[in-house]
Write a structure and sequence with these properties.
By secondary structure, this protein is α/β, with parallel strands linked by helices. Helix 1 packs parallel to helix 9, helix 5 (139-158) runs antiparallel to helix 6 and helix 13 (519-528) packs across helix 14 (530-552).
Length: 553
């Protein structure tokens, strides 16, 4: 069943980022005296994230909620829909939203539609990244990464195996743009500072690697002088730069680069790639490079009262006859122009053309350092750039209360060390996907049985490794292959049913994608579905007999 909400004079804004929220804010001011016009905004969250400061959440320089502002407080008159968008129908002029507490879609009609859907993290084409890389795009990602960093450092403190400890202490960040560099800088500062409080290893044991496909980091963002400065500063602070390289794949135990280099790690952060929202592909409008083509008034070409801006749109800039880069400062100015033009359309006035020359670019390098390029001719680096970076973004924070909180957080940062509390906010173990490359071990004999594995594609072998003898000439002589497993088969049930450690080793032979069903969910299934348990036990008995025969052989 689908519920429909009708209102003729509705301005419907899709997206809760800079472009969407600032459009709503400007419309709220311009149309305050228009009671018949409803401003509605659809967002996945009820808050707006001030993205430029998100990396500071990692190090704890600002609080977890200091970068977010409730949308209803920024736009009091706005009708807020916290739903997923299922579809957009430009001909019928409706947007269908996903269900809330009841399994019913919600259809909203509109007079004006503003497309500000932004971008999404998309790991298509890079195997293993979806399963094993930590994205960094929103507040949940920042909190998850911070928790993960604290967890791996705590584990490294008690890990007796030097090789595994080094793997835990290795951190890989992919992407040499502003996002990747800022995340890498904050991560590097945080883990090295925390390492001073840990036993069993020191800051010198920390390894942070930044992978970038270009010859220099920030090569597209700032000039070569600032790019070189940023590069030297990060290297001086212990960051390894792996340039002219890119991620090829990821596994639970390593980041594998296009050059063939394998970096053993339990922490891989990816700030690339980012693509326009997939909903854009469903719209029958002119697009270039995946973005919607708009005119100088920010109206979608060929579609009346359909508007687009921000990362979603390919916006021409009358100031330089170029197209706008996907930056927050351009999105905010586009929002102001678009709001003016919608109000002008409602009141029968002439629209204006978007024109904004850009003020410059800034990026933090962590620990009181930054780079800034102003008006394409003024270059600042180091501490002065960091002061400018903080001042500008503090001033741009929406809401006086947010400015106050962030200001106090920065002040306390000089006096009190950052908190290293790990917040357990996930819902526990869930069905997950894993990717392995040939030669990698899924689990070893003697490991704890924590999951049942289902093969989606690829191939693995079940092996038993015996202790080497005096006559052994290579490790391979002591390996007995018990079985080959292919797509559609499962394994790992013996340890779960018998509640014991793994009885054999499973090794990937062809690139392997698995579904991992955690122990708790496996037990819930087998407890409540006796026939399923019987099926697992029959397979287990057959495999145990096979293993026994192999041992006798």
């Amino acid at each position: 069943m689908t519920k429909s909400v009708k209102k003729r004079n509705r301005i419907l804004i899709l997206g809760g980022g800079f472009a969407g929220v600032y459009t709503a804010m400007y419309l709220d001011k311009l149309l305050r005296s228009e009671p018949d016009v409803e401003i509605a905004l659809v967002s996945r969250e009820n808050y707006f994230v001030f993205q430029p400061m998100l990396a500071e959440v990692i190090s704890g320089n600002i609080g977890l909620l200091d970068t977010v502002s409730p949308i209803h407080r920024l736009v009091p008159r706005c009708r807020l829909y916290i739903r997923e968008i299922e579809s957009i129908d430009l001909l019928e002029r409706t947007v269908t939203l996903g269900p809330g507490f009841w399994p019913q879609s919600l259809v909203l009609e509109f007079e004006h539609l503003v497309l500000a859907l932004g971008t999404v993290t998309d790991f298509r084409g890079i195997t293993g990244l979806h399963q094993h890389a930590l994205p960094f795009k929103n507040l949940a990602d920042a909190v998850r990464l911070r928790n993960h960093l604290i967890h791996v450092l705590n584990e490294a403190e008690i890990e007796p195996d030097p090789e595994r400890r080094q793997q835990l202490l290795t951190f890989v960040v992919a992407g040499g743009g502003f996002s990747g560099v800022e995340v890498c800088a904050e991560l590097n500062d945080f883990v090295r500072q925390m390492a001073k409080q840990c036993r069993g290893f020191s800051p010198a044991d920390i390894r942070v690697v930044l992978v970038h496909s270009g010859k220099q980091i920030l090569e597209r963002e700032v000039g070569p002088k600032l790019s070189a400065y940023a590069q030297k500063l990060l290297q001086r602070r212990g960051v390894e730069l792996c340039l002219e390289n890119r991620l090829k794949t990821a596994t639970p135990d390593a980041a594998i680069l296009s050059s063939g280099v394998r970096i053993p790690t339990k922490t891989l952060v990816s700030t690339v790639p980012s693509f326009p929202n997939p909903l854009i592909d469903t719209l029958d409008v002119k697009k270039e490079g995946g973005r919607i083509v708009v005119d100088g008034h920010l109206e979608v070409i060929g579609s009346e009262n359909i508007w687009a801006l921000g990362d979603t749109a390919r916006v021409p800039n009358a100031a330089d006859n170029e197209h706008c880069p996907p930056t927050a400062q351009h999105a905010i100015r586009q929002a102001k122009t678009l709001a003016h033009n919608i109000a002008a359309r409602i009141h029968g006035r002439e629209p204006i053309v978007f024109r904004f020359p850009g003020l410059g670019k800034m990026g933090s390098l962590g620990h009181h350092s930054a780079v800034a390029e102003l008006f394409n001719r003024i270059h600042i680096s180091g501490f002065p750039a960091w002061v400018l970076w903080r001042t500008v973004y503090w001033w741009k924070l929406p809401g006086f209360d947010r400015k106050l909180k962030v200001g106090f957080s920065w002040l306390l940062d000089f006096l009190i060390p950052p908190e290293t509390v790990q917040l357990r906010i996930d819902g526990g173990s869930a069905l997950g996907q894993l990717h392995f490359e040939p030669g990698e071990i899924v689990f070893r004999k003697g490991d704890r049985g924590d999951s049942l594995y289902i093969i989606l594609c690829g191939e693995a072998e079940v092996i038993r490794e015996s202790e080497p003898t005096e006559n052994s000439t290579s490790a391979g002589e002591n390996v007995v292959r018990l079985a080959t497993l292919v797509a559609g088969e499962y394994f790992g049930e013996i340890a779960l049913l018998k509640q014991k450690t793994r009885s054999a080793t499973v090794r990937c032979t062809k690139s392997l994608d698995l579904l991992a069903l955690p122990q708790g969910q496996f037990q819930a299934l087998t407890t409540n579905l006796p026939e399923l348990k019987n099926s697992f036990e029959l397979v287990m008995d057959r495999r145990m007999k096979r293993d026994a025969d192999a041992n006798h052989g």
